[in-house]
Amino acid sequence: MYNIFEMERDEPKFWIFQSNPEKLDIENAINELEKDVFTVNQYKKEIRKSDKVLFWVSGAKGGFVGYGEVLTSPEVIDQNPEAVKFIKEKDLNKKSLRVWVSYNKIKQKILNVDLQEEYFYMTEKMCIFKNPQGTNFPIDKEIWDFFVKNFISRLIIPFSVAMKKELNPPDIYRGEEEIQFNKRDSKFKETLINEFLTESKDSKEANNGK
């Protein structure tokens, strides 16, 4: 079937997708699922595959709970069967205009009240804080980059440490490389960080001994 919304675009757009906690337990859905479907109620002709998304919860205890990417363009589809246990309202099980999205969790929910208190200069630019009624809200790249920089967990480690146990490590140390750890287990993280600290300590002692 031809999708009237399927159009190529050089650069992605950026969105907030908001859910009502009385209708959908998106926080646990993000923790358990790698991808899911999300309702498109606004900007039906603008939301497209490869766009970037911040996931939001509405209400008094609402806020930023995760991020991801739009995997398909909007089309009328069924609810994701793997997400049924997170749905609290039967109407959400009906066919609707939806997109598939990827889910990535963050360390902890960033509450609206905290964002407004500490980052007012940024939230005043976000339409979700001006008129929070809705499902899909546009944001610009500046806001997306702000959330990536401040709230999406990343760890910088030396490339040489990351490659330490490889059979053919690089001959030349080429600086640092950014490596995402949000999908790594805690044991892996602890081991890699300890290796980094041990290598740094040994290097410092060797330099002091010269």
UniProtKB/TrEMBL annotation:
InterPro entries: EVE_domain, PUA-like_sf. Pfam families: EVE. Residues 13-148 form the EVE domain. This is EVE domain-containing protein. It comes from marine sediment metagenome. The lineage of its organism: unclassified sequences, metagenomes, ecological metagenomes.
